[in-house]
Design brief:
This protein is α/β, with parallel strands linked by helices. Helices cover 53% and strands 11% of the residues. It has 2 domains: 126 residues, P-loop containing nucleotide triphosphate hydrolases (Rossmann fold), CATH 3.40.50.300; 92 residues, no CATH class. Helix 5 crosses helix 6 and helix 10 crosses helix 11.
Length: 239
């Protein structure tokens, strides 16, 4: 792996960005990709053209990413997630587990007073007004297709996701047995002590399962989502 290169992990919130930090900082990953791991907050304060780093969880749309100064040698990828699952994940995060900062406290007070269905509608409105879905669309409409990776495939086929997809994109060579060990040590169970799908509402790693929206969206909530977002899930390829 070249050391005079930058890698940009672009995404929106609720796409396993915390997990990727753990993965990138793990000693096995660093052995085969020895780049300094920097958070998205540091992009604002440090020169993003400085080579030799992985910027994780860069919450941005395609247009801003293109304009951001970058070294000549750089690679990037974007994590996409079903926006319906995003709504559910955002609801539980703000309602229970997210650290109180910024507007989280006010949003939590509102959600604590609302029944589940109304809370999901509240979450849809907030995400829409914050431009969350527009960020997703900007990548799907404009970025190279080979740069877009889905949360769903990441959850279901982790080894293939990394070995055959992401590592090929980033130019990372890692023996299969090392990747298997890395994924085991960074697994949902290793981090949380729970099997994937076992819920803990107080944890930032609540459940880790795609398709959760089907258990939470009533017919009315689904209709509301479609109307508020103009069927954004279809534009993103989720239907």
């Amino acid at each position: 792996m070249e050391r005079d290169i930058n890698i940009y992990h672009c995404c929106t919130q609720k796409t396993a960005s915390r997990w990727f930090k753990v993965f990138f900082e793990h000693e096995i990953f660093q052995k085969y990709c020895p780049l300094e791991v920097s958070s998205y907050q540091e992009v604002r304060w440090e020169d993003p053209e400085t080579p030799g780093r992985i910027f994780f969880a860069l919450y941005t749309d395609w247009e801003h990413f293109v304009k951001m100064p970058k070294p000549e040698k750089h690679k990037f990828f974007f994590m996409l997630r079903d926006p319906r699952d995003v709504v559910v994940s955002w609801y539980y995060s703000v309602r229970y587990s997210h650290a109180v900062m910024g507007q989280i406290g006010d949003w939590r007070k509102c959600l604590s007073k609302l029944p589940m269905e109304a809370g999901l509608k509240y979450s849809i409105r907030k995400l829409q007004r914050m431009g969350y879905f527009e960020k997703q669309k900007s990548w799907v409409k404009n970025a190279p297709k080979e740069s877009i990776f889905t949360y769903e495939y990441f959850c279901k086929k982790q080894f293939n996701f990394f070995y055959w997809k992401l590592f090929k994109r980033l130019g990372i060579e890692m023996p299969k047995e090392e990747l298997s060990r890395l994924l085991k040590e960074c697994s949902f169970k290793a981090i949380t002590g729970r099997r994937r799908g076992i819920e803990n509402r107080q944890s930032n790693y609540r459940k880790g399962m795609p398709g959760d929206w089907m258990e939470h969206f009533s017919v009315d909530v689904y209709k509301y989502f479609r109307e508020m977002t103009d069927n954004v899930h279809e534009e993103l390829g989720y239907e």
